[in-house]
Design a protein that fits this description.
Layout (H helix, E strand, L loop, with lengths): L6 H22 L3 H18 L2 H11 L5 E2 L2 E2 H18 L9 H17 L7 H27 L3 H27 L4 E3 L3 E2 L20 H21 L3 H20 L3 H17 L6 H25 L5 H6 L3 E2 L3 E2 H14 L26 H28 L12 H19 L11 H29 L1
Antiparallel strand pairs: 1-2, 3-4, 5-6
Length: 469
């Protein structure tokens, strides 16, 4: 009896054999490029065959852990691919697209400021590469914002999106924890690694996380703290509340492991502001207990981190802070004065997004201020557009100030911690510039997108009863 195989079975056998051979070769002699290509193909397949919302949720998990490509990183590629697939579905009338009127104008002005600033662009290989990569990632982050606005359009999707973002928070905490436990080692060579160099004494290190920037890693923890606290308060099951409590404590520990003063100060201001806007939900005894617990937690965590980890003491570093003229921190004076001088060289449209901050005026520092960063690369035009966007975001998130975290609907209650998170961001950007990091940039625009999406969900809930009448 002859055994006959159909063409489909033959293709399956060949595919399995080839996959096995490839897997065996990569186990024996792993190649970073081949692994990246396989991962990219699998992700593109999943994005194409599943809903764009599922693709967005997948992107929310993987965006802090990109692998490098010739121009930028994989997050940029995946954002563009998802958006292109979304546009194809829109053209086929299987999906719809909308642009948020409240944010269209400031975002359009920001895009225009980038384009116009290229007039002063310095044409050299290094500057051109930096400028193109930075601009591409900035525009992709804006696409990321509009995907959140379009895909997260009801309460259930908003709730699940926030939960999935907490998965990302946990993964970043795990990465930062491994960085603290194994400083100077690469988790996955040329992909997941720390920038600490192995040395005889591994002490006083500042945890940089997957962003490879301890100040932005600290700001990430600070911004997420009120959101995690909100999920802890809203949790109905004891197990869920305990889990979010653990995540909140871990978030504070990770913040202290960065030994970053500005993020802690911004978080403290944000938490005091949160206590003020939630005063109707809190009676005085409860407020005193929460405040006391926060202070005690801060001192306990600082002691543990300073004595039992490779990091240092945050409070000790704060006590060593010195100020110039009693106002400007000593370690920011040169950076801010240099950034102001550079900005006024091209005050209206800036130097362009490829401006090299290390080769002018003898000040080898970034602006260390997002507002001065915009002033340097896009001039007063771009800075005004960014401030305009922040004003619109504050206006949109103010709708949650009067809501009750514990009693109102999920979207209305969520808007309050998002508003506080935005305030923390606005304050912290006085001493750091989120634009200098092409990975962290997506998190900032994720925060902006969540505010816009939450506002739209609240408005849709308000319109629905009127439509029924």
């Amino acid at each position: 009896m002859k055994l006959r195989l159909s063409s489909s079975k033959v293709r399956l056998i060949v595919f399995i054999a080839a996959a096995g051979a490839l897997a065996g070769s990569q186990i024996a002699h792993p190649s970073k490029r081949i692994l990246e290509a396989l991962g990219g193909l699998i992700l593109v397949y999943l994005i194409w065959n599943f809903s764009t919302l599922s693709a967005l949720w997948l992107l929310l998990v993987i965006y802090p852990f990109p692998f490098a490509i010739s121009l930028g990183n994989s997050t940029f590629v995946f954002v563009v691919i998802i958006f292109i697939i979304y546009l194809i579905r829109v053209s086929a009338r299987t999906a719809t697209i909308r642009f948020d009127r409240q944010f269209n104008l400031p975002i359009l002005l920001m895009v225009m400021s980038y384009i116009i600033s290229f007039y002063n662009f310095q044409v050299s290989p290094d500057v051109m590469r930096f400028g193109i990569v930075h601009t591409a990632n900035f525009f992709a982050a804006i696409l990321f914002f509009y995907m959140i606005v379009n895909f997260v359009d009801n309460e259930e999707r908003l709730y699940r999106t926030l939960r999935i973002s907490m998965v990302t928070v946990v993964l970043i905490m795990v990465f930062t924890l491994l960085e603290g436990l194994f400083p100077g080692r690469q988790l996955i060579p040329q992909w997941l690694y720390t920038q600490h160099k192995a040395q005889l004494v591994m002490k006083g290190l500042r945890m940089e996380g997957p962003f490879h920037d301890f100040e932005l890693n600290a700001e990430f923890c600070a911004i997420n703290a009120p959101i995690i606290l909100f999920l802890t308060i809203r949790a109905r099951r004891l197990l869920t509340r305990s889990l979010f409590t653990f995540i909140l404590v871990a978030d504070i520990v990770m913040l202290f492991s960065t030994v970053t003063r500005g993020a802690f100060i911004s978080l403290t201001v944000g938490m005091v502001y949160l206590a003020y806007v939630t005063r109707r939900d809190l009676n005085f005894p409860r407020l005193v207990v929460i405040a006391g617990a926060f202070v005690a937690l801060a001192f306990i965590v600082d002691t543990l981190v300073a004595q039992y980890t490779v990091s240092g003491s945050l409070f000790g570093r704060m006590l060593e802070t010195t100020f110039k003229n009693g106002v400007v921190p000593e370690n920011r004076a040169a950076a801010w004065s240099g950034a102001l001088s550079r900005g006024f060289e091209r005050p209206f449209i800036g130097h362009g997004p490829g401006w090299d901050f290390t080769k002018t005026l003898g000040v080898e520092l970034w602006p260390h201020n997002a507002y001065l960063y915009y002033f340097n690369i896009t001039g007063l035009f771009g800075l005004s557009a960014f401030v305009f966007l922040l004003v619109r975001l504050v206006q949109a998130s103010l709708s949650g100030v009067r809501s009750s975290i514990m009693h109102d609907s999920f979207p209305e209650a969520l808007m309050k911690p998002l508003h506080v998170a935005l305030v923390i961001f606005i304050i912290d950007q006085i001493k750091i510039d989120y634009l200098r990091n092409d990975i962290y940039m997506y998190f900032v625009w994720l925060l902006f997108g969540l505010i816009a999406a939450t506002r739209n969900v609240i408005r849709s809930r308000e319109v629905a009863p009127r439509a029924e009448k």
